[in-house]
Write a structure and sequence with these properties.
Shape of chain B: flat
Number of strands of chain A: 0
Order of helices and strands of chain B: HHHHH
Distance between the termini of chain A: 31 Å
Strand content of chain B: under 5%
Structural class of chain B: mainly alpha
Distance between the termini of chain B: 49 Å
Order of helices and strands of chain A: HHHHHHHHHHHH
Largest interface: A-B, 101 and 79 residues
Helix content of chain B: over 70%
Shape of chain A: globular
Structural class of chain A: mainly alpha
Number of domains of chain B: 1
Radius of gyration of chain B: 20 Å
Largest sheet of chain A: none
Oligomer: heterodimer
Number of helices of chain B: 5
Number of strands of chain B: 0
Number of helices of chain A: 12
Chain lengths: 245, 102
């Protein structure tokens, strides 16, 4: 490779990094709002701002952190904490499996170790949307914006919890869901199977919040069950043609 | 080390294991057509079940949540970009709650 080619490749990498940063701005803001609320919960559980900061920096998971903090507040054993956090995070196993196919075999293993650390619902959604194999620099760009939003949001939530107007917290709380819609709806418009899968997903998760017994299960358990059942049925009824994958 | 610190280490360790195991153990492309199709649908299903109905209960007023969901659906059906959709949903809640909640 000539110097010029190396430079071009380097520039493309940085372009990908900046693209990731740009795409993750709404995620960073949404994270700030959600983790701010999480910080208020942590304060009520007796945690310090520094503890909140590190929990979020190291875990990067809303439901999982919530479960862990609830266990800490309940003076639970280490084993109980571990089991609850695994249950709340079980869906990441599915995402991680799906994501394993998004990496080229040529990509160095270290990228999987780093990206796996911050495999969140939102970054997964943007990463999987990329054409072809995932460019790790794109993901690092997203991480550089999303992780501070999450960690500092938590810390500020513990410190200033009661001060932010509830109107603002309320408005920011839909940002992440708006992003989810932007990932699933455009393909649903053009692909009939995806459209049905999304519709059945909406309806069944709504029904699950109404049906007795099922509605008392944790959100994590409901979500992973529905995902496995619906995605299996879709794969069985409509196996994807090789050229679509 | 304090009890809370150990709890934080436990949380971090199990969270990382759940996320990293499939990603690092499955290094070759999966050939099985059923599994490939299953994994193709997983993102759409999981994001759909996470979004609804949780989104409409996320705000201070049920109606502002329903409105934001409707606006998000309408915009994305018309191929609005991801940041635009996120901002539009937030503004829908902010503005509608000035009328819904006094």
């Amino acid at each position: 490779m000539s110097t010029a080619e190396i430079n071009t490749k380097e520039n493309q990498g940085w372009a990908k990094f900046r693209e990731g940063q740009r795409d993750a701005v709404p995620i960073g803001l949404g994270y700030f709002a959600v983790s701010f609320a999480l910080g208020i919960t942590m304060k009520n559980a007796g945690l310090t701002p520094i503890q909140g900061f590190f929990i979020s920096l190291l875990n990067n998971a809303s439901a999982g952190e919530y479960a862990g903090v609830a266990m800490i507040a309940a003076q639970a054993s280490y084993l109980e904490t571990a089991l609850m956090v695994i249950a709340a995070n079980a869906r990441y196993m599915l995402m991680s499996t799906a994501f394993s196919q998004k990496f080229s075999e040529k990509t160095a293993m270290i990228h999987r170790w780093i990206i796996g650390f911050v495999l969140t619902d939102e970054l997964f959604a943007l990463g999987i949307r990329q054409k072809g194999y995932l460019e790790p620099k794109y993901y690092y760009g997203m991480m550089s914006v999303a992780m501070p939003g999450w960690a500092f949001g938590t810390m500020f939530g513990v410190i200033f919890g009661a001060l932010l107007p509830t109107r603002i917290v309320s408005a920011l709380s839909v940002a992440l869901f708006g992003m989810f819609l932007a990932v699933i709806i455009p393909p649903a418009r053009t692909n009939k199977v995806i459209r049905n899968v999304v519709l059945i997903g909406f309806l069944s998760s709504f029904l699950c919040t109404l049906i007795p017994v099922i509605k008392d299960l944790s959100e994590g358990v409901r979500m992973i069950t529905l995902t496995v059942v619906i995605a299996s049925a879709a794969a069985w009824l409509n196996p994807v043609k090789e050229d679509e994958l | 080390m304090s009890r809370v610190t150990i709890q934080i280490i436990v949380m971090t360790a199990v969270t990382y294991l759940v996320r990293i195991l499939p990603l690092t153990l499955i290094r070759k492309p999966i050939k099985n057509r059923f599994i490939r199709s299953f994994l193709y649908y997983v993102p759409y299903v999981s994001l759909a079940v996470m979004t609804f109905p949780t989104m409409i209960y996320a705000t201070n007023s049920l109606w502002s949540g329903i409105l934001a969901f409707g606006v998000g659906l309408f915009l994305t059906w018309n191929n609005a970009s991801l940041p635009k959709t996120a901002v539009a949903c937030c503004l829908t809640v902010l503005i509608s709650e000035f009328f819904l909640i006094h």
